[in-house]
Specification:
single chain, mainly alpha, three-stranded antiparallel β-sheet, 62% helix, 9% strand, globular
């Protein structure tokens, strides 16, 4: 009788261990099975360094053109500003939005259209009007960089005296204030309002 009880107990223990091992194996298999996880990113966004390089190159050139325009306005040079505005417009229209994440493309495209229009107006205007358009696209540039990131640290600067006290903003790659909205009339009017860091 004792032998029978021991045999039954031993059998039950072995069965319990077997079930436990099987459950552990099934659990482990589930943990390593990623087929059920959706991979939406694979379809909506190009991956790898090539995408980053394409994005960075186009945004780098656009920022360079914007800063060249800013410098021309700081120096009260309407002719150089016109050339810089034309270059900015051309760069904005040449950027391939398909190099960006699909969900961001419509907004990027819309902003680039606005930047292009401002650049075209700057290319054929006198300096006061150039400055209006330059200030007008500051927010668009900020919005664009919030989506795409930037290859350098930039500073949003603000002058409260611009436009009869309504104020005006621009971006600079230096914390030093050199006001493109007034040029030599009020070269140092303004302050840094925000730092836009690389990402």
């Amino acid at each position: 009788m004792l032998v029978l009880i021991l045999s039954v107990s031993l059998s039950l223990s072995l069965i319990a261990c077997g079930n436990s091992n099987q459950n552990n194996q099934e659990e482990t298999a589930k943990q390593h099975d990623h087929s059920a996880i959706p991979h939406e990113a694979d379809h909506s966004m190009p991956t790898g360094s090539e995408m980053s390089m394409d994005e960075n190159k186009s945004i780098t050139d656009l920022i360079d053109d914007y800063l060249a325009l800013k410098t021309a306005l700081v120096q009260d040079d309407s002719k150089v500003a016109a050339n810089a505005g034309q270059k900015l417009a051309e760069e904005a229209s040449s950027i391939d939005v398909n190099t960006f994440e699909v969900s961001k493309q419509p907004e990027i495209k819309e902003i680039l259209e606005v930047v292009k229009e401002h650049g075209e107006h700057i290319a054929k205007s006198e300096i006061a009007h150039q400055r209006e358009h330059f200030e007008g696209m500051a927010k668009d540039f900020m919005d664009l960089l919030a989506i795409t990131g930037t290859d350098r640290t930039l500073y949003q600067q603000y002058c409260p005296m611009y436009d009869k006290g309504k104020g005006g903003s621009w971006l600079s790659d230096s914390q030093e204030i050199k006001n493109p909205l007034f040029g030599s009339k009020m070269l140092t009017c303004g302050s840094v309002k925000e730092t836009i860091s690389m990402k």
